[in-house]
Amino acid sequence: MSTTKPSFPEEDWPWIWAIEDRDNLDWTTEFKNDADGLRAKEEEQKNLPVLISSPPDNPCFVFLSNMETAFDFERLSSLGITHVINVAGEVMEGEQEQYTKANIKRTTIEAEDEEGYPVLKEHWEEFQNFVKSAPAGSNILVHCVAGINRSAVFVAAHKLVSEQKNVLDVVAHLRRQRGNWALHNGSFIDQLVAFARTNGLLGPRPGEPCCRVAEKAPPYDSFRRY
């Protein structure tokens, strides 16, 4: 546990806390009295890729995946994947000939999964430009290595702005689809919240009526990075 001074503005703290404390957006509470449903959902999360966005809320179908599934061309074909975005850099991009043969358009983004890395500042425009180049109804797969942090922050930011949903609802949906460990890089959380604030999509403050997190955030001075 780190006790370093937070690098984000105090105004963002309630939403950052709500995302960082995984109890707040724990998808398993939905299945509190349904053990069979819980197991079934856990199996769905393992069956990558998982669907994050779809029409009519979004122009395209956007899937989140790990590296292994991004190289499984039989699986990609069964889902009708037309576009692939690799956000883990050239070392994870595979053979271009295979994507060409499968009639899949692909781009590679050199993002790093490190605390403090400005992933949205450096690569958001590049990511969105490729997504917008895909015709409506396309099936877009976004992946990094594990499908947990880099690819997760991009699909979350995309869902946020394209569907005009608030940040806690977006992250709750992301974790319901991918698991509670999705988006645990602290600085990526900070950036997503700042991105939501810039776009007017923070949503209700935790503890306020209509917010999915009923508890108020602890004082800003109590910041801990888990």
Query: What strand line-up does the widest sheet have?
Result: 1-2-5-3-4
Computed Rg: 17 Å
State the major sheet. 5 strands, mixed
The secondary-structure element order is: HHEEHHEHEHEHHH
- The share of residues in helices is 40-55%
- Give the overall form: globular
Give the rounded overall mean pLDDT.
93
The number of strands is: 5
Low-confidence stretches: none
Structural class: alpha/beta
Binned strand content: 5-15%
Give a verbal description of the structure.
This protein is of the alpha/beta class. It has 9 helices and 5 strands, in the order ααββααβαβαβααα. The chain has a 5-stranded mixed beta sheet. Strand 3, helix 5 (96-101) and strand 4 (105-108) form a beta-alpha-beta unit. The radius of gyration is 17 Å and the shape is globular. The relative contact order is 0.21.
Descriptive labels:
single chain; 226 residues; alpha/beta; five-stranded mixed sheet; 9 helices; 10% strand; globular; protein-serine/threonine phosphatase; Dual-sp_phosphatase_cat-dom; hydrolase; protein tyrosine/serine/threonine phosphatase activity
